[in-house]
Amino acid sequence: MVAMSSSATAVTPAQAPAAARPVVVGVLAAITSSHLINDMMQSLILAIYPILKGEFSLSFAQVGLITLTYQLTASLFQPLIGLRTDARPAPYSLPMGMGSTLLGLLLLAYAPNYAMVLLAAALVGVGSAVFHPESSRIARLASGGRHGLAQSVFQVGGNTGTAVGPLIAAAVIVPYGQHAVAWFAGAALVGIALLSYVGRWYALHLGARPVARKADAHAPALPRRTVAWVIGILLVLIFSKYFYIAGISSYYTFYLIHKFGVSVQSAQLHLFAFLLASAAGTLIGGPVGDRIGRKPVIWASILGVAPFALALPHVGLGATTALTIIIGFVLSSAFSAILVYAQELMPNRIGTVSGLFFGFAFGMGGLGAAVLGLLADRTSIEHVYWLISFLPLLGIVAALLPRSLRPAIDGGTMPSPRQG
User: Fold this and answer.
1) Taking 70 as the threshold, does the pLDDT of residue 3 lie above it?
2) Which terminus of the chain, N or C, has less C-beta within 10 A?
3) Residue 322's pLDDT band (boundaries 50, 70, 90)?
4) Are 329 and 281 in contact (CB under 8 A)?
């Protein structure tokens, strides 16, 4: 952790002036590393879909239902957990959530049938639901006022973990089979230890919450109807991004195998390239938003990816790889900017906002996987990729967002729509 003030009177991060507060590097690093572990374990489910499909003779719709199960579980619980922890913080809920993910991982490794696979997916979803709202709040608290930067660093941990999953599957799980998933229980134990450390730090700083809320109360407030309108626009953008991402993350390996005849391991490496590009792009959105405002980042990252998405279904293997890398990099910069934009709208409801947006993102990802899987069964995987290529065009609704002021180092404030 970053050293605190050497003065006689201790000053908590929330009490210090925004420009003077340091980033609490140790806490941010721990929560980011935990995000990597959490999302890596989630991505193992996606990465072993070809193995599960063959093992249990699953249809594409059944594969999509696995994604729907863990993402819908996370989607339903995250807003409720965020609302609850806004009123009553639960610092030690984080290691408990990681424990649920650990149980899901072990069950997945030894699931004897499809029903147990779905139960394992649900346990992983519960773990994610507990993890994301509070960890996003802690990243903000440890940011030293650099909210966009902190959210991007936090998000890049998760995206990196998601990217590592297919690489692990190609190197370990494909050669050794479903039971090899259990080998990664050790990573979950590391996550539990990190989150116990974070929970202790958070518990020590809960006394600063009233001061932080009082400071937030001086921020200019928007009318409720305007806040609801802006939140609605942001949720449309989340739908566009995550419904499209569901088509890539859940079915990219099948698309490559079916259209280009690549091996399962080769397809996993292509998926890793896409997810690694997504992780790299995530690191850009937050700090750029701190400098130039959230709206330009949101606009460019979603609508800007449309030409590449529209071209993707019509090109060969090499161009497919290149386009998906570009798509992953550009599109992934949106979420940190969207989340911080929403947090600035409702600064006293950080847990609720974080839970709502993480939950909606998970829900759209799960719904997208299920719907697109059913569509792939009835048409073809190539038709699915053509259909979803139009989704990034919904990024045009970002034009309706109020333009945020150039943020100060403390994260900026939201102006009224007349300033847009």
Assistant:
1) no
2) C
3) very high
4) yes
In a domain, 287, yes or no: yes
The structure tokens listed for 195 are 């989150």
**Position of tokens 């996370």?**
74
Residues 6+ apart with CB under 8 A from 153: 28, 32, 139, 283, 286
Spatial neighbors of 48 by CB under 8 A, at least 6 apart, are 169, 173, 178, 181
Domain membership flag for residue 354: yes
Q: Is 19 exposed, middle or buried (0-12, 13-18, 19+ CB in 10 A)?
A: exposed
Amino acid letter for position 268: Q
What does the alpha-carbon distance between residue 198 and residue 208 come to, in Å, rounded to a whole number?
16
Share of the chain above pLDDT 70, in %: 87
Q: Which residues of 147-169 are buried (b: 16+ CB within 10 A; e: fewer)?
A: bbbbbbbbbbbbbbbbbbbbbbb
Q: How confident is the model at residue 67 (pLDDT cuts 50, 70, 90)?
A: confident
Residue 105: which residues within 8 A CB-CB, separation 6 or more? Answer: 41, 44, 120, 124, 181, 182, 184, 185, 188
Rounded-to-integer distance, Cα 106 and Cα 117, Å: 11
Burial of 115: CB neighbours in 10 Å, binned 0-12, 13-18, 19+: exposed
Is residue 219 scored above 80 in pLDDT?
A: no
The pLDDT tens digits for 254-296 are 899 999 999 988 888 898 889 888 878 877 777 887 788 788 8
How far apart (Å, rounded) are the C-alpha atoms in residues 221 and 209?
Answer: 19
Residue 206 is assigned to a structural domain of this protein: yes
Print the domain residue range for 306.
23-419
Instruction: Tell me if 124 is assigned to some domain.
Output: yes
> Which one has a higher pLDDT value, 88 or 101?
101
CATH number, position 117:
1.20.1250.20
User: In total, how many domains does the chain have?
Assistant: 1
Share of the chain above pLDDT 90, in %: 29
Interatomic CA distance for residues 253 and 150, integer angstroms: 32
Higher pLDDT, 7 or 338: 338
Contacts of 276 (CB under 8 A, 6+ apart): 160, 163, 328
Whole-angstrom distance, CA of residue 159 vs CA of residue 172:
20
